[in-house]
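thread: overnight batch results

M.L. [08:02]
morning all. the overnight job finished for the chain we discussed friday. pasting input first so we're all looking at the same thing
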Amino acid sequence: MELRLLMGEHLRKLRESAGRYDGTARHSLEMEQVVGDYSAFVTDARHHESWAALAREGSPDFARLVAELRSQSARCAAIMEKYRALNLLDGRTESAGYFDNIESGIEVEFGAFRLTSSSKVLLVGSGSFPMTPLYIAARTGAGVVGVDIDAEAVELGQRVVKTLGHGLDIRLERMSVEDLAFTGEATHIIFSSTVAVKYALLDAIHSSTRDDVVVVMRYGDHLKSLFNYPMEEVDHRKWTLVEQVLRPEHIFDVALYVKV
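M.L. [08:03]
and the structure it wrote out:
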């Protein structure tokens, strides 16, 4: 099937699946299938040539389709986390392939900037099932703070941490990263790939962060930009791109920045 038609079909399924969320986990298996299929689609190298051809055309209709897919998939990813949290809290702990894909990449995404027990990590866009904070705190002993603007996500995330993260130094807040005092203490800041304004936030927090802070920017370019917000140019007077961790088989890639 032509790539544009495939994209349209995925968009229809994502919209329908997201529209069924009602605050319960009744439709979690259906969304698991829809998002799993979409994850496989955006990491399928067989589509790269067709994607490049469509991107070169520069059609406004294609650009709108890309933007809508990115928005709807981000919405579905957020709902998937809510489903996973609700299932866990109800005693069901099945793991979807989408989460397996993300979890398997957390350990390597810091590149040369390894975490230690004295690290202070801030995650922007922590979601309802805070995989990254739980993983980092459990593996390294570092203190982790997650922020999210979704009140339901923060409430569910706090319950998940209470269930799975006993004794771990994790705190979740419903707050803007710009207003959080911990932003100035963090040694590492991670931006989730589905945060639309992540590069604007990176620019805004420059003056309030440590001189030695390391920023981990999750992103997706080209075909992966259908499920992630892509890399953007930074103010080269403020930030320097020092490393990229490219993982063709993973949902997103990683860009590492330090201060100039």
